[in-house]
């Protein structure tokens, strides 16, 4: 992580190399191509104003001074370590491979934990990416791990463009980081920014024993220029040991024949040069992953149990899982992050800048063509044919204006008629509502009058019946 932070500042200085002081020391050996500022400016047009070329002083040796007393510089590494430990580290892992090769299981085994994955549908018509983020902590060191896995990769009949969603995702993360660096986004200032650039890509190869497939070649050729690709052979326990070595050799020959770029563990650091050089000879790694624990003697280990024996995941005689974990997590995780920034991200910014220059040139050419066409038309208008054409155009424009006025007049009359009709209907509606209310009022009055009229008749009818009280007496 320390080198990553240094690399970030270094990349900015390289981008503005014309203004770097002679006392600045920058290592650009790992960067393929960096555009020179003067070369870029010379290809752009700024009208009559031209940028002033940068002046550079002659190189002078840097003086080395030994401080006579204690100042406190020795505490800088400790301060930096406290800062990065407090903020935590970030690692983004991309897993690319066909369905059923054990991508999720391998991630569980690499970080010795169990993640809860949602059930996935494997009949998608297109390739999709699933992103899961986790906060891991070990000995007070925090790591924000982001795992990006492909869904539906290689499941289609036409698999020619299966790699495009993956490349678009990687470029989108580079673009977001570039916007953050340029100040277009302010997430870093409020502490909400998360570096989502892909630091490592585990490319899962099917254990066919016949070398790389066409889909593997097409995808790895593109991904090799975007991120650190580490090819691994999935489910290596399905291949015999002798056949496995032959399969590795075929894969290496295919990689060399197709000029595919795969990540090589660095050998320039003396502390890890020996182990990295030895591990590079074992690529591609043959992996066995399992979530199950089996009993081997007095120990419980991860592995797969078969009728003829147990395949142990962490046994280097059975597979290369231990080598992969050692190289990916324990030894070279920081180098993966640094390489992502200094090589792949710098290349992306270079290509992005070149596209910007081309867009500016295209706009300038379009403006020049437009100005040329305007001047040509102006000179044509001065000729006799141009004057006749101008006269015809004027007549046509006049007729169009007259027709437009007539249409507007008819439209106004139509609107007026519609408004009058609407007012008439509204008035009729009001009258109808009033008549209905009058009708209901008269109806109620007639009903009451009928009731009053029938009351005397009912009383007379009741009086015709003799009283039964006298008979009882």
TrEMBL record:
Subcellular location: Cytoplasm, Cytoskeleton
Cellular component terms (Gene Ontology): cytoskeleton
Coiled-coil annotated spans: none
Domain Septin-type G per the UniProt entry, residue ranges: 87-355
Gene3D superfamilies noted in UniProt: P-loop containing nucleotide triphosphate hydrolases (3.40.50.300)
InterPro entries: G_SEPTIN_dom (IPR030379), P-loop_NTPase (IPR027417), Septin (IPR016491)
Superkingdom as given in the UniProt entry: Eukaryota
Keywords for the protein's UniProt record, in alphabetical order: Coiled coil, Cytoplasm, Cytoskeleton, GTP-binding, Nucleotide-binding
Example of a GO MF term: GTP binding
Family, similarity comment: Belongs to the TRAFAC class TrmE-Era-EngA-EngB-Septin-like GTPase superfamily. Septin GTPase family.
Stated name of the protein: Septin
Taxonomic lineage from the root: Eukaryota, Metazoa, Ecdysozoa, Arthropoda, Hexapoda
